[in-house]
Design goal:
The chain is of the alpha/beta class. Helices cover 41% and strands 17% of the residues. The longest helix is centred in the middle third of the chain and has 23 residues.
Amino acid sequence: MHSNARNAGLWITRSISSQVAYTLVPMNTPPVLTDAQRSVAGRVITSLAGPDARLRDDQETAVATLATPGSRALVVQATGWGKSAVYWAATAVVRSTGGGPTLIVSPLLSLMRDQVAAAGRAGLSAATLNSSNVDEWSAVESDLLSGSLDVLLVSPERLANPGFGARVLDALAGRLGLVVIDEAHAISDWGHDFRPDYRRVSDVLQNLNPQTSVLATTATANQRVTDDIADQLGEATLVLRGPLARKSLHLNVVDGLSPIQRYGWVAQELPFLPGSGIIYVLTVADADRLVTAIRTVCGDDTPVAAYTGQLPADERHELEDALLDNRVKALVATSALGMGFDKPDLGFVVHVGAPPSPVAYYQQVGRAGRALDEAVVVLLASRLDDSIWDYFATATIPDPKRMDRILDAMNEAGTPLSVPNLESATGIRRGKVELAVKQLAVDGVVERTSDGWAATGRPYVYDAPHYEGVVAVRQREADIMRSFVRGERCLMRLLTESLDDPAAQDCGRCSVCRGELTPGLNARPDEETVATLSAVLRRDAQILAPRKMWPGGSFGRRGRISPDLAAEAGRVLAFADAPQWGDVLGSAKNGDATARERLAESAVAVLGDWGRRGGIRPETIVSLDLQGGDLAADLAQRLRTVGRRPGTDYPVLGGPIPSRDATSATEAAYWRDHLGQAPTDVAGLAVLLVVDETSSGWPVTLAAASLREAGATAVLPMLVHQTV
């Protein structure tokens, strides 16, 4: 067994008090499986891992503990250690003695799907309730309540659903044999992936039959997170913690590349990376662009695909299976492909941009090399990562003034309010409202009903010292990532030390220990490759989807935008910090003639492709400069010259532009009042509307409506830069 307790000749349990306390118990007190229980657990393990497999000491200790009614256990072990084997074996043991079913709280759909399959291999009947199988809910709930189901997997969001609580949890509260909290670091706001809905698990635990055992598992918890999780689990929690270093991983850092050079590196080096793997990016747009970049360099038939949370569940499942079966070289993925994805022979993980925490980075690279002697891990760092780390340090910290505004709105209404109603009543953007009500619910200040969110009457108290501590921890983690990028010492040691692993030591395999990258990898892409990618990607415009509904609220007008006022689907030349634009976009905004010529060349290419795909051909070109410059006017004039089209400018009135925190209704109302009179010489013509920059798209929507009212037969928006 790897736990510090066994090494010290003592057994550690946890007890709850105002201080974190450890109770030391003589080593002869740990529970032991009976012969019958060991036989049941053994059948599960051999079914999962082969005829010669058996439980390791720590695994058997955990299973024996959980077979003891009312026990609590926290397993913190490296990826690939076999944490899931513990809860499958424990479930089988509990069920063999007449115990109730197991409830597993799991964070991702892909993880649930893998777990259902694993449970089947272990001889257990398992099912899940999630957004992708609504048609199956009734049958699953019936099987669960009848006792024919051994395991139910649910998301933390499902726990927060009042209907699910009334139908299922209330009925099961006294009958569950085991509750499992997978990826339990998400319970703690000290952790790298805190989710407010995960705190609903605490509510479930408080309503459990005292005889129900509870297991929490994670590979990514430092000591502070471990302490927090154990405190939440309750009295006498057994903590099993082992060494976290992964001997198969060869960690590398490539620093100093520009964003487009990072794309070039991936496209150039991908064929030389071992086996199949995952390329992590930070945004959905990056995933799509990088796939285009790879195919540009390696060929259109290169087996790669983008994997993001925006894909339908069945498409994500197909891509996961393709990677598992080695039918793709790589999935270019956001963090949606992360926790729980289990491919033992994953040969490499590449990050285009660093996660904000060494703990989060460890969690993702841990997907590689579980059943391999060697796997390659590469971090392509960038100066842009700093701003991302700074954002994540404070993104989920509650704003007490915002909380007060939301609570005031609830109290004034006197009835439950939906998130859209709260947005309208408070002037706070919808995403921030959604996060705030979940955080308030964690503290019991609001509750979710079938009609919306309502205040419970409990006062909200902002715990400033606590959140200051959380921010300080996240900032320290960002500093560790900076040290990691700079290669100040062994990369594996830095990661495992950040997880408070007492066994942390130099690995001898990383690019710092070796003084060079893994043999076969280059530090820089060819300049010709980078130039080719820049040219191709600047012609790869994104679709600008037209808005469908008016925002209501302070804007006044609500409901569907009628077809005779709506814009057509447009095009975005540069989305967010699109790497192919680099310094070109900034130079173009500042009036550089060469940069503006490149912008025009790309716009002409986009228009050509747009027309070939069946788009409406514009008959006049109107510019709309929202930021006070002449970027759109200059581009429109260049396009008029090339296309021999007439056109004019759309006037904009002066005034401070709303902040990015403004609600849709506020921003729409602003542009309604600050767009001038639409040009009148567009009647009977299809208009190409060239716009410089916006994030929400409301000025495009309103200008298009005014142009349609002036007689335009269609409005085709071309947005130079869409910010986020």
